[in-house]
Amino acid sequence: MPGPTVTFLGGVREIGGNKILIDDGGDRVLFDFGRSFSQKYDDYFVNFLQPRSTSYVKDLFEFDLLPREPGLYSEEVLEGTDLRYEAPRVRAVFVSHPHMDHVQYLDLLDPKIPVHLGKVTHSVLQVMQTTSPGFGLGSGEVREFEDRKAVRVGRLEVVPFPVDHSVPGAYGFLVRTSEGCVVYTGDFRQHGPRAADTATFLEAAAAERPIALLTEGTRIGPDPRKDLSEEGVRTRAASVLGQAKDVALTTCYPRDLDRLTSLYHAARASGRDFVVSFKSAQLLAEMADHHLPDVPVPGVSPGLAVYLRPKKTYRKWERPFLDAAIDAAEVHRHGARYLLQLDLAQFPEMIDVRPARGSPFLHSMSEPFSEEDVDHDVLLRWLDHFGLGYHQLHASGHCSGPELISLVRTMAPDTVIPIHTEHPEAFAPGGRPLVLAEVGRPYPLAA
Questions:
Q1: pLDDT for 166-195, tens place per residue?
Q2: Alpha-carbon span 326 to 322, nearest angstrom
Q3: How far apart are CA 103 and CA 34, in angstroms?
Q4: Is the pTM of the predicted complex or chain greater than 0.90?
Q5: Beta-carbon contacts of residue 416 (< 8 Å; ≥ 6 apart)
Q6: Structure letter (DSSP) for residue 189
Q7: What are the phi and psi torsion angles at 41 (to 5°)?
Q8: Pairing assessment for the beta strands 19-24 and 5-10 based on DSSP bridges
Q9: For residue 77, what pLDDT is reported?
Q10: What is the average pLDDT across 71-98?
Q11: Cα–Cα distance between 200 and 162 in angstroms, integer?
Q12: Which of 102, 186, 91, 178 lies closest to 140 in space, CA to CA?
């Protein structure tokens, strides 16, 4: 019987697009199934030019933006394509965390393939399904795993470990094969509020004496960013807010629970209320059931409000927030009371809020990609138009390059295979055998 292999269907020499297939004697498990945010996608689809909803997979196949992998997709989504439907060849999918570059294509999978994920991960994906039109989990079975408890899939045993990242519900995995353990890090960091979880995962991974380390490398190579901690963001934000005399504005990723929590506490420390978007309010409300420490809850936590964007109709999930929401007139009238969160698509709200010139704008996002991003020059033009002061305050969701090299040396895997990076060769100083993977090629996993 052939030994285990790993095949990358995406996520090599690019940020995002993780699709990792591990096969051990015909027992095949897929880790993540996300959209690529590489330049290749933008070469064909940008702004309102997007794949057709009636032939979505066909359009992505045309430009090799989805893998033509038999026995993976549902029969419905393959209609009109040149890939014939086959019964599932994959026994399970495991989700590392709820970012679009890891989950966007889950609804294209054959519903006979079960999707394994953490409880918090599942909750965040349900919020995304509610608040983000176009995202779906699909109709297949969803199985919630328990932290650090092994899941058996044929010859493979998968052990999920929670890790720290810029979204709740992030995991790394130990994948025990017939030849030894493979470590898949997912996306992770060591400088956030759950750094202890990351440390526990890395310690357990090293103890397995892994035959292969599949590690993200978002920040390895050229990286001019300052490595603030989440506590550093909170402290500096409170300092800026304490000096502001009128309204303060901020933008952050709407699913970055740590950042929302940091900004809330910074606002409270400076005597302000934190006014969040409907989308962020929905996430915070959903997370209340998980009893996460320090996370504010709409309708419960003092000094947390929801911004009332004027709309002709409000969606069902938005309506519970309407009665206590505050509008632009209130924010303009009593600006010194508030820190207002505006998602980038909501910048036109500044026209109604009319922030005083010199008011601070806390830009609290700077990862290499996001479905929420706009051109930075456009952002600066908005700030210049209203005379706002720009403050960059961000803690990355990813380890720094030196941290990644250090963990490679400490873990000492037989082989390192970098993913989720544009600079895989930068792992060479780690001193371990390095595989610069190519898409679609099976790589043997052997002790």
A1: 999 999 999 999 999 999 999 999 999 999
A2: 8
A3: 4
A4: yes
A5: 212, 213, 215, 408, 427, 430, 432, 433, 434, 435
A6: B
A7: -65, -45
A8: antiparallel
A9: 96
A10: 97
A11: 9
A12: 91
Look-up: residue for tokens 């700077």?
366
CB 84 within 8 A of CB 75: no
Helix (H, G, I), strand (E, B) or coil at 237: helix
85, two tokens:
């439907």
DSSP state of 225: -
Burial of 376 (0-12, 13-18, 19+ CB in 10 A): exposed
Return the closest-CA partner of residue 171 out of 209, 216, 131: 216
Residue 332's identity, in one-letter code, is H
- pLDDT tens digits for 4-48? 999 999 999 998 899 999 999 999 999 999 998 777 888 999 888
Residue 266 structure tokens: 């910074």
CB 101 within 8 A of CB 192: no
pLDDT for res 1:
65
With H, G, I as helix, E, B as strand and everything else as coil, classify residue 275.
strand
Name the DSSP class of 79.
T
| Ordered strands of the 416-419 beta sheet | 151-153, 156-162, 171-177, 180-184, 212-216, 416-419
Write down the residue that tokens 């698509």 correspond to.
345
**C-alpha span between 317 and 130 (Å, rounded):** 7
Q: How far apart are CA 137 and CA 139, in angstroms?
A: 7
For the stretch 340-383, pLDDT in tens is: 999 888 999 999 999 999 999 999 986 644 444 557 888 999 99
Structure tokens, 165: 């990242």
Domains and CATH numbers, the chain: 5-222+398-444 (3.60.15.10), 230-392 (3.40.50.10710)
| Average model confidence (pLDDT) across the chain | 93
Strands (E), 102-179: 115-117, 142-144, 151-153, 156-162, 171-177
**Residue 223: how many CB atoms within 10 A of its CB?**
17
Pairing status of strand 248-251 against strand 442-444 = unpaired
Poorest-pLDDT segment among 126-130, 168-172, 220-224, 366-370: 366-370
What is the rounded distance in angstroms from the CA atom of residue 415 to the CA atom of residue 211?
6
Model pLDDT for residues 270-303, shown as the tens digit of each residue: 999 999 999 999 999 999 989 888 999 999 999 9
Helices 195-207/401-411 angle, 10° precision? 30
| 434 closest CA partner among 408, 400, 403, 399 | 408
Residue 75 pLDDT exceeds 90 = yes
Check residue 372 and give its pLDDT.
Answer: 47
